[in-house]
Amino acid sequence: MPGTAAFEERIRRRLVELEEAGLRRVLQVPSGIDLSSNDYLGLANHPRLKQCMAEAVLAEGCGSTASRLLRGERAIVSTVERRFAAFKGMEASLYFGSGYAANLSVLTTFLERHDLVFSDAQNHASIVDGIRLSRAKRIKFRHCDIDDLARRMRSTSQDTQRFLVTESLFSMDGDFAPIDDYAQLCRETGTVLIVDEAHAVGVYGLRGSGRIEGTGCAGGVFLSVDTAGKALGAAGAFVSGPSWAVDYLIQRARPFMFSTAPPPSIAAALETSISLIEDEPERRQRLESLSAGLRASLAERGVNIGRSTSQIIPIILGDNERAKAIAVELQQEGFDVRAIRPPAVPPGTARLRVSVNANLTEEILKRFADAVQRVTQCSVVSS
Ligand SMILES: *Cc1c(COP(=O)(O)O)cnc(C)c1O
What we know:
Order of helices and strands: HEHHEHEHEHEHEHEEHHHHEHEEEH
Number of strands: 12
Structural class: alpha/beta
Strand content: 5-15%
Bound molecules: pyridoxal-5'-phosphate
Oligomer: single chain
């Protein structure tokens, strides 16, 4: 009979298996130059954000004390939701405690059991999990490949409600989905398009609202999911779209209904983030030029950066142990880069995920590129 001792033994064996595969994670407090956070605009430590959040704590308290359906609702949250909807050019927005909860909510609320959902092969775990929980049938298509997508669409029934879910900028490869072409294809096929702008909001588009704005396809998008813990520098996520959809989320999204509302002070900080993004485009312009510079200098040095065309620049190394060893060497030189291994990326594509932020300088990034060249060419890792 399996008992608690056998159970502990099983888990210890699993940990050893992870260790042996080079997949055991340890939590590591940041030190050194930030080349791995998603704080792309450097807003997380912006004095105005900190000030607004601190003042809101003093005015509103720490916790929200309940679900928003009960005593957890605050005026400041609905104010920032209206502000964000206008920023995205959508009718309404709903704020969630995390992007993970937002994706779970959207997918489990709108997808029903017999629906079909086309999902990019590299979509984020929160999208994959949301689809699983929805019980809709998932049809995975090749990463950013509209021909593969169109072919799979043609071979499915017109009579079924169909959805397409994609990130607009992919978190591990740093490449863009052709969302404007997807919007066109969705229009032609009656497919509902959901776009996750986690890494694009704040960074792309003339007003900084993301790739939907940047590619001019807002009219073809049903919902946008925009996380607020990355370029926006705080926490949580907005889901934006037609007001009837937001109304339905309030009625049915379980991660929204059965979870305590996030602290109201975060909403106060987010109002400031939106203002800074609207009023100070120079931050995203600087990010763009620093990113282009780093991509070029890594490529010049013969480093494999995959398909990146953004501020997310993978350095693809392949082997798990090698990725880990190279990350450690670069950390010892003062650069905070992290190894990304399966299941976050496909097996055999372990990498460093380098992300540029607007607080860096050309000089730092040049030193970093030199260091990468040195350690990737010299390091011999036994496995
Ligand atoms: C980070 C991320 C999420 C989850 O957002 P959190 O606010 O961190 O929970 C969702 N989708 C994508 C593409 C992400 O990169």
